Amino acid sequence: MSESPVVRLEKDGDVGVIIVNYPPVNALGPGVSEGIIESLNKANADPSIKAMVLMGDGRSFIAGADIRGFGTGRKRLAIGERTYDVMDASPKPVVAAIHGYALGGGLENAMGCHYRIAVPSAKVGLPEVLIGILPGGGGTQRLPRLAGVKTALEMITSGRHVPAPEAAKLGILDEVLPEGANLREAAVAYARKIADVRPLPRVRDKTATAEPGVFDAIRKSIARKARNQKAPYNCIAAVEASCTLPFDEGIRREAELFAELETADEAKALRYAFFAEREVAKLPDLPSVVAPADFTDPAVIGAGTMGGGIAMSFADFGYDVKIMDATQEALDRGMERIRNNYATSVKRGSLAQDEMERRLARIHPVAGYEDIADCDVIVEAVFERMDVKKPIFAKLDEVMKPGAFLFSNTSALDMDELASVTKRPEYVAGTHFFSPANVMKLLEVVRPSKASPETLLTAMAMGRRIGKISAMAGNTDGFVANRSRAPFNSEMVILLEEGCLPEQVDKVMVDFGYPMGPFAVGDLAGLDIGAEGRKRRAAANPNYRKLPIADKLVEMGRYGQKTSAGWYRYEKGDRTPHPDPEVAAIIKSVAAEMGVPQKTFTDAEILQRLLFSSVNEACRILEEGKAYRASDVDVMWLHGFGFPRYRGGLMYWADGIGVKNVYAQIASWHQQYGERWAPSKLLRELAESGTPFREAKPAPFV
Ligand code: T1G
Q: Which CATH code of 3.10.180.10, 1.20.1250.20, 1.10.1040.50, 1.20.190.50 fits the domain covering 499-600?
């Protein structure tokens, strides 16, 4: 049998079983495709083998090309000599037997096979667009032929993973095995069953036909999400070729469109984001022998907007979760809000009614502490005041069983202070969700000084188990995400003092790729919320830079959408922000009172004033040892603030400008504006050594 370290051929009677073994996810790493080809050729040359099965060892089928190889000039097999081509030419049938994932090149290999079967839990997809490229192994030519053009366009431009039962309905899979079936046995039996069926059903022999207007329709439907990006449109062009060109020409067209993308900035940034999101889970200074604790019985304290969203996050991922509030009336209000949130998703078509009922049934309102005494993890999400949270933590400590974890959703309060009111500080950590908690993926895990490694690992794992991306933050005011964002929030208002208007700043940030401008976001969140934080910081720090314009709006009761007026004006029942001459007048008069010289701004200066101020603060956070790595800050900005993913993240984007250039500009603003622009020590050191932000060596985590 062919023995290659990553692919082997075994025989089950008259069926050759080709097994890929390239952990952890059977990516098409070095030698894998060559090993599959070698095994296919050996099996075809072996008269005792009538059919073949292609499957993966370990946890998955094939999860796609080895992303680490992109942009490295790695050797690639030529068109006509790839696995898909050898399968097309194979005189014997090949059955793809899928478990785990068949993604990208994995699904493309499966579509090169003659048949595809899967276990029910398997998922298939062509997620290449999510890393700024397109299916380059025939996926744009075979999927339209297998599942239809419309389905192919939706799957390829969204990159979504399709569960096996749905994939079978779409025509991508020939069979989904019953729960518990043995995949290899079933696949060998299937191969034996079809071994003599001729002609061999090659996907390339089918035709793809498009309904009129389908391509323009999808271009329109992706326009907002695909702004400033090329990959989604190249995906569409490649699928279009599957309808207009013969198969082999379509393959060549796909390769041309792929080549335009692989080394583009968009793909480099998206690959960076992909790996940054995996790196963020690694806590290098915790003992590797410690594992996260399992939990089965969570509870949320506080049924407000955040508490309700957190409870939904648990329910969405299959956990029964208790939710508690001080009064029955607050609890009823909270449950009503949860029901309405789910109903909105059902109305939008993103959630089935029966699934909504199942999730609602997992959320159990409870009256008192005695009802949660046996829970193994608590997330507190009550009012953001220490004098409200402390008694709750003291009470939880009293009633909760030993070993239960006490987490707080606080967005900025001192976690050491909160832990100090319990007798179990080693079981206390911050788990800062972002609003809306059931939607936003970022979970900032805040590390108090006495938290045990198990507690920290459990908080990180809890986030992942409810669909979040967990990122570790040091216990500093604003932790990492909000602290790095704070200068941005000040600078945007200071720009107004100097002559900018909210709509001008918002346009720059939306053109940069944000879904919404920061002033519109402020109106959405509520300007009164920010005012609370500013008041607290001004009381604690006499040098705190006040924002009179923002304070003035709040004094006038202009809280944003909820009062139909904030930075913008809103028509009744309409959330569209309209520039408001009254705000322009307020800005003008406050700026005049402050005696700020007025000027005009280029878009670039507006963008850099906001983002460089946060880059500088992120460097301070790293030099204080409050974050593990610059790429963790990027993950937080991608998933906490909607930073455009195709730009990689705040620090990755700054590296594109160059650490020396960022430093020089900040140093110049330091001269012009004073201390708030003082360059951080780490920034200066990185500029002096020419070290990119991404390679910054932060201080040990404290
Ligand atoms: N290449 C290289 N490494 C990969 C990888 C890949 N495709 N997929 C995962 N890894 C690493 C990952 O970095 C992590 O490493 C470990 O595996 C576990 O991953 C020709 C051109 C499969 C759904 O885009 O979506 O095919 O941190 O933590 O949560 O047309 O990994 O342990 O060192 O994510 O269970 C298309 C990308 C490629 C799939 C599993 N395929 N991967 O999720 O584990 S382009 C993809 C995923 C392509 C063809 C084109 C997920 C997963 P480390 P993980 P998971």
A: 1.10.1040.50
* Integer Cα distance of 438 and 211 in angstroms: 37
Phi, psi (degrees; rounded to nearest 5) at 378: -120, 135
Q: Is 333 a residue whose pLDDT tops 90?
A: yes
Side-chain-side CA neighbours of residue 481 (13 Å): 24
Residue 335 has pLDDT above 90, yes or no: yes
Pocket test for ligand 1, best of 67, 134, 275 (most atoms within 8 A of CB): 67
Q: Whose CA is nearest to atom 27 of ligand 1?
A: 278
The top-level CATH class assigned to 7-263 is alpha beta
The domain ranges of the chain are 7-263, 298-475, 499-600
What's the first-to-final CA gap in the chain, in angstroms? 54
Atom number in ligand 1 closest to CA 60: 22
The confidence band for 4, taking pLDDT boundaries of 50, 70 and 90, is low
Check pocket membership of 67 for ligand 1, CB cut-off 6 A: yes
Residue 698 pLDDT > 60, yes or no?
yes
**pLDDT tens across 605-644, in order?**
999 999 999 999 999 999 999 999 999 999 999 999 999 9
User: Which atom of ligand 1 is nearest the CA belonging to 127?
Assistant: 24
| E strand or H helix that includes residue 17 | strand 15-20
Rounded to the nearest angstrom, the distance between the alpha carbon of 25 and the centre of ligand 1 is 7
Distance 131 CA to ligand 1 centre (A): 11
Nearest by Cα to 283 from 150, 407, 51, 454: 454
Predicted confidence (pLDDT) per residue in 114-135, tens digit: 999 999 999 999 999 999 999 9
In this structure, the number of other CB atoms found within 10 A of the CB of residue 556 comes to 14
CA dihedral 647, 649, 652, 656 (to 10 degrees): 40
* Helices (runs of H) and strands (runs of E) counted in the chain: 28, 22
Residue 1: is its pLDDT beyond 80?
no
Across the strands, what pairs with 56?
20
Residue 555 amino acid letter: E
Report residue 405 as tokens: 């974890």
**Is-contact 620 680, C-beta < 8 A?**
yes
CATH superfamily of 298-475: NAD(P)-binding Rossmann-like Domain (3.40.50.720)
Q: Side chain identity at 692, as an amino acid letter? A: P
666 in Cβ contact with 677 (< 8 Å): yes
* Site of tokens 């009064």: 327
Q: Known catalytic residues?
A: 108, 128
User: Cβ(201)–Cβ(114) under 8 Å?
Assistant: yes
**Inter-axis angle of helices 328-348 and 305-316, to 10 degrees?**
60
Strands 7-12 and 64-65: unpaired
Cβ-contact 21, 8 below 8 angstroms: yes
Atom of ligand 1 nearest to the CA of 274: 13
Question: CB within 8 A of 91, min separation 6: which ones?
Answer: 44, 200
pLDDT tens digits, one per residue of 568-608: 999 988 889 999 999 999 999 999 999 999 999 999 999 99
